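Sequence, please.
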C-alpha cells in the first residue's frame, strides 16, 4: 500500500492509494481515509471525502460537513454534493447557507444539487432564492431543483426568468417548469414568451401552454 504522506509520492499515486484503501474497506483502511481528509493536497482531500461518504461509514457525514468549510473551492464543491447523499434534514440549513453565500459558482451549484436530493420545505425556499443567482449554471441547477421538489413554489421568479433572463437555456427551462405546474395563471406569461427571439424558447413556451391546456 502506498503511503501518500511520504516524500516523492505524486498526486496521482496518492489518489490511487485512496481508491485502493476504499476498495479494501477494512477498519484500518477506513481510518487511513479519515486521516487523508486533512491531507495538504486538495485533490487527495476531496477524493478521501468522496470515498468516505460512499463507504457507508457512520461518521462520514461529520467529515463531509467539515469539508464544506475547506479553504479550497474544489473541496467545498465535492463536500456539498456528497452531503446530498449522506446528509439529513439537519444539513439543509448548512447547504442553504453555502448556496446563498459561497463566492464560487461551482460550490453553489453543487449545493443546489444536494438540496434537491435532500428535499423539504426549507430546501425549496433556498432553491427558489437561488433562481436569482448571477451565474447561469447555478440558476439552472436551482430551476431543476424547484421543478423536482415543488414547481409552483417558484412561480413568480420563474415567470420573470422566462421573460427577462439573458440566457436562452434558462428561459427554456423556466417555461418547462411553468408548464408542469398546470397553473392557468401561467398562460399569459407563456403567450408573451412565444414572441421570444430564440426559437427554442418559443417552442418551449408553446409546449408549456399545451401541457397546461391538457
Amino acid at each position: 500500500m502506498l503511503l501518500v504522506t511520504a516524500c516523492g509520492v505524486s498526486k496521482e499515486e496518492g489518489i490511487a492509494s485512496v481508491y485502493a484503501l476504499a476498495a479494501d474497506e477494512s477498519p484500518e483502511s477506513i481510518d487511513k481515509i479519515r486521516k487523508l481528509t486533512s491531507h495538504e493536497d486538495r485533490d487527495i482531500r476531496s477524493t478521501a471525502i468522496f470515498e468516505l461518504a460512499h463507504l457507508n461509514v457512520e461518521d462520514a457525514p461529520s467529515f463531509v460537513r467539515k469539508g464544506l468549510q475547506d479553504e479550497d473551492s474544489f473541496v467545498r464543491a465535492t463536500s456539498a454534493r456528497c452531503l446530498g447523499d449522506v446528509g439529513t434534514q439537519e444539513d439543509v440549513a448548512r447547504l442553504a447557507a453555502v448556496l446563498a453565500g459561497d463566492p464560487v459558482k461551482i460550490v453553489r451549484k453543487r449545493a443546489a444539487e444536494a438540496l434537491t436530493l435532500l428535499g423539504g420545505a426549507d430546501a425549496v425556499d433556498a432553491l427558489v432564492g437561488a433562481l436569482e443567482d448571477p451565474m447561469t449554471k447555478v440558476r439552472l441547477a436551482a430551476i431543476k431543483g424547484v421543478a423536482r421538489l415543488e414547481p409552483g413554489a417558484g412561480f413568480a421568479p420563474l415567470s420573470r426568468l422566462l421573460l427577462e433572463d439573458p440566457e436562452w437555456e434558462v428561459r427554456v427551462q423556466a417555461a418547462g417548469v411553468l408548464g408542469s405546474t398546470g397553473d392557468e395563471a401561467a398562460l399569459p406569461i407563456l403567450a408573451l414568451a412565444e414572441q421570444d427571439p430564440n426559437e427554442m424558447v418559443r417552442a418551449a413556451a408553446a409546449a408549456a401552454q399545451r401541457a397546461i391546456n391538457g
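The radius of gyration is 21 Å.
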